[in-house]
Amino acid sequence: MEFMMDFEAAMWQACKEVFPAVKPVGCSFHLTQSFYRNIKLIGLAPSYRKDSQTRKTCRELLSSKELLEALGNLTHKFSRAQLRELRNANGLDESD
Questions:
Q1: How many Å apart are CA 64 and CA 58, to the nearest integer?
Q2: Could you give the CA distance from residue 59 to residue 49 in angstroms, rounded to a whole number?
């Protein structure tokens, strides 16, 4: 048996503890939402929408589990204001 759910680590852990015989399965809709939310968070949304090479590169990078975990750790360590300041310092467009 499988349970389909979002990609929240706590939810997966709870599922494994409460239902040890059930396999948690991630929802592709939520994964796609998470990808784009992170692309917007780091300031790449305008380029992602306009440039096919940027889209391709982002998709390739975001398919890496290690990179997703690193990005998640990065976004939890810095406030939105700090990430905005980092984007501005690097000349990234904030509009999305």
A1: 10
A2: 12
pTM: 0.47
- Cα separation, 41 vs 37, in Å, equals 6
CA distance 41 to 30: 16
Q: What average pLDDT values come out for the chain (96 residues) when binned by 10 residues?
A: 82 89 83 82 88 85 66 61 67 54
Task: Give the chain as a DSSP string.
Answer: -EEEE---HHHHHHHHHH-TTSEEEE-HHHHHHHHHHHHHHTT-HHHHHH-HHHHHHHHHHHT-HHHHHHHHHHHHHS-HHHHHHHHHHTT-----
